[in-house]
Design goal:
Rossmann fold; 44% helix; two-stranded antiparallel sheet; XRCC2; RecA_ATP-bd; RecA family profile 1 domain-containing protein; DNA binding; alpha/beta; 285 residues; single chain; ATP-dependent DNA damage sensor activity
Length: 285
Amino acid sequence: MKEKEREEIEKWIEGDESGAEMLSRVSSVRPFVFPPPLHRVPLRVGNVLELVGPSPSAKTQILINAAITSVLPKPYGGLDHLVLFLDLDCRFDITRFSQLLIHRITQHGTDSYDQALYHLCMARFLYVRCYDSFEFLHTLRTLHCRLEKEKEVQGVGVHVLMIDSIGAFHWMDRASMFLSQRETSKKKLFLQTVSEAVVQNIKKLLQVHPMLIMATKSVIFGNRYSTASNEVKGNMEERCSKNMTRNHQNFQYREYMPSVWQMSILVQPIIKTPQPTCWNGYCQN
């Protein structure tokens, strides 16, 4: 053991460290410090973070801000790493990403931005678009080679994997379970099988490429008064008054992803938006 390491261990055992020194040391080695609202979440390599919220709750915007923080160099308040962004709902706006990146760069300098720095950050942002579960699984299985190649080319590795709209293919896969007998030539997808394959591939990827996983998921609001048993009870006025209520206690978050995916999540912040309006169990923002 080196003398310097021995001295550090002895100092740690003796406990001759003030609270301010401890906070300074911990903050300096903390791998991920993202802009709000993620600044309150203690994230580490290997964590799986799922951002849950309705459609207009800026989940993708949160990913964009975190991605910009990751690709920016440390003098600009960044983490100096690569980011891989998997777009499953095919609605990512690269123009918006570019505008926010330029804004972050100009915050640390003059009104004009450094084009060389801009191109460096854009090259560090790796974007992949998937159109169905087959492409998504194929992408996960082939990421190892791509990550190795990008690390050799750019000199830094991917430390954040972002999956926008993890449940984008859920309903298509669910519908494929009810294919008619004449379509037996097509390979059927089963929700549990797809989710198990996704989780297994992510775990294998984390073993060779330790990184943070960040995923977004749109929620489904459920109204506890919209069940069949309650609809047959009472008169029409009572049912309407219950369905039209705006009390947040009447809304329940209905999970639709298979349990194998839910068990892999370590952190799940809920992104709040203005309370939706409901009618007969259907909620709309």
